[in-house]
Amino acid sequence: MLVDGSVRRMLDALGSPDPTPGGGSASALASAAGASLLLMVARLPKTRNGSDDDRAALATASTALAALRETFIDAIDADTAAYDRVVAAYKMPKATADAQSARKEAIQRALVAATEVPLSVVRASAEALAHAAAVAAHGNASAASDVGVAVALLRAGAHGARLNVEINLGGLADKAYAERARQEVVRAAESAALDADNADALLR
Amino acid sequence: MLVDGSVRRMLDALGSPDPTPGGGSASALASAAGASLLLMVARLPKTRNGSDDDRAALATASTALAALRETFIDAIDADTAAYDRVVAAYKMPKATADAQSARKEAIQRALVAATEVPLSVVRASAEALAHAAAVAAHGNASAASDVGVAVALLRAGAHGARLNVEINLGGLADKAYAERARQEVVRAAESAALDADNADALLR
Prior knowledge:
The structure is a homodimer of 204-residue chains. Helices cover 81% and strands 0% of the residues of chain A. With 204 residues, chain A is mainly α. Chain A starts with 6 loop residues before the first helix and ends with a helix. The interface between A and B is large, with 53 and 53 residues.
């Protein structure tokens, strides 16, 4: 598991010419770091004004962000596992018509799974960014730069995961599924960008 | 050391309400992952056209990116150490005039060091992004999404580190140093954004 190995080991693995881990796992890592930073600010004992309003808003954000953070952490390894299955499917024998058909099916199953993981990261990044404005408005003002970094990381994670969804779409035989995934990724990425801009505006 | 601990441990530490690690270390992590992905693509045995031109351009990028990656990896822990020293300096005694003066000096020394680390991350992110166009143009076309993720991560790392430089500037007593740092961070961030846009344009 990448997440149980050292940070240096994961960075070395991202830098090696082996096909995995790649951009999908790196995008999940960025969103995991972004959600963690938002969570940190939401958990600080000192809030913007020390009001009950602050505390209630930050508690709601904390609960959601803690769950989303787990989605990102799981996706770091799930993305690598899914892509490894795509590579393995492409390497299946294709000498006979039966083998070709089994290979084709395995590739399609693997491609769908390799699309679902980054799709979940785009979706969860948009959800995390939907809480960024509350953290920016109610969190300790001296942690504003942490919120700004969190927004930048979640923006990068959403964008990177979107690229990883889109690269698979052309290869999917189920065109209805591909079209649904394409529409959902555009919608989630647009909502992520809007919420990121809103949170950034509160930090200025 | 954060980089020798597990990925999960670093993400947990970013999410805890303790003051460090925070946005500075997270920004360095994002740029380290971005530089690693560019390095991965530059090291792939398959290049855009298999030409000598490709190989020469990618070898130049590889050498630079491997060094920049070390700068980012070092900055992950250096940023946390520098910020810990700022917190420690603020906690120094201030009962007498001598103690107040020693505390003031220690805070200033610590703030300069805490500015230098994210400044080095902005600078190195801009340098890494200066190689992104070459990797996008000469690297294996099937790794285009990895280059896109790398650009997004380095963009986020540069922006996040810039926020961490800027938050210190107001507290610096040496106004000439603060002004030089302010100008350098703007210049490096603008160059980073321009090179990121250029690389993204090559990927479309």
